[in-house]
Amino acid sequence: MADLVDLVHRSLRDEARREFDDRVDEQATRLADALREGRLDSPGFGLGIELEAYAVDGDGELTRVPKTVLESDCEKELGRQNVEFHTEPSSFDGDGIADQAAALRRRYRRVQRVADEAGASIALDAMWTMPPAAGSYPYLADVGDREGVTIAKNMTPSPRYCAIDNDILARTGGSVALEVPGVERRFPSILFESLASSIQPHVQIPDAEAFPRYYNLAVRTLGPVLALATNSPLLPPDLYDIEDPASLLEETYHELRIPVFEQSINRAWEKVRFPRGIDDATDTLERLAADQTCAPFLREWLADGDRETFSDRFWELDHKRGTYWRWLRAVIGGQPVGQGDRWSIRIEYRPLPTQPTIAENIGFQCLVAGLLRGLYVADHPLASLEHDAAERSFYAAVEDGLEADLAWLTADGDRTTDSSVIYDELFAFARRGLREQGVPSETIETYLGLLETRWAERTTPSRWKLDRVADGLEAGESFEDAVFAMQREYFDRSAGDEPVTQWS
Q: Which domains, ranges and CATH numbers included, belong to the chain?
């Protein structure tokens, strides 16, 4: 295989982009035909999840993931401090949920043991705030030039990541800006996106004809579900330029991950954004093909052989999906759950931050899957909520968490902004969907109960973090000391496996 610099140069050539786009168009057409013929239908509903985390040293400061950890049961991510866990797909029923929880917990514990042996720890957190000794900006801005290619030294040395970085930098004058409350910075790389960590619940839909309704319902749930999940209200203190930390705590967003990711990419194109609804499953392919091409690669550069898997037959299309950044995404292809056709169609639910414990992460997997199924089987009118209202609801949740002005249509078709009504329905229909899939009541209450308590007590990880920092400021601590004390307490409590609602 060619080296990283050579592959980046190839990716940025006009002729490579033209060839890549031609292949994407042809593959999208073939896959749309397969959709219409029912070849993406699968035996039943399925579940999966991806979970990102980051590594810290014994003092809680950010550190690179030890090599031994990357050789264990996890994957690399954008930053050298990031790791990702994922589960194999399982059936959407009680046994499947138990399998998901057991697999995710097993992988996390195995990786944590390896990290411990290397003097590090894997943090289940949505944004790091304790930088390495050199500081946050030096870490994120440490770049070099190799034969005209910008290489961020703390970015995972992947041709794909490096090509994305260079494609964006070429369109933004060589730097990318981040502007959120208290911070106005320019970075010579998109690496600041690796400040944040997320989870992505996956829901496999067995019937392609039913997929648009599931997708359109999911779009309208993004705001209320995100509001329950917020966990990234603060950046590292050394990135701020503020005089009044108490005012910052009032002004900051509950979910900074959303603007961080959007701004790391959208200075070049508006690719990271709230999704539009669809009329047909093939719409997702048409939009993917029409989306701006970023860092194209051709199959022969990286892959060998003539295997007849999905990713080989539709390699360029699948590669482009990796830069189709919407907060809800359709994934057409991949291994289905159960026996039958070898492809599937699924929803990736993408705006949720990593949660403090494995149980809470699985809780959101259950909430998302149960809610979509429950709304669908009840023929709930939520999909008729105006797109603009759903989008405003989403960004209100980003800024204000559970205090956001949310929008919803009730089962009776009434438009409401009453959060009590919204969450009553949200949990009721999530329970209905889980029951529809034969999930035992004990399992339902175990996982949904964790999240329903958040609403009852108006407590999320972001709210807990902001309150802890405020307590530190009132006690006379500096902003940095208050943030670091909060973060260390978060690490300790997260490791104890108690949900955030039990953190006194």
A: 4-502 (3.30.590.20)
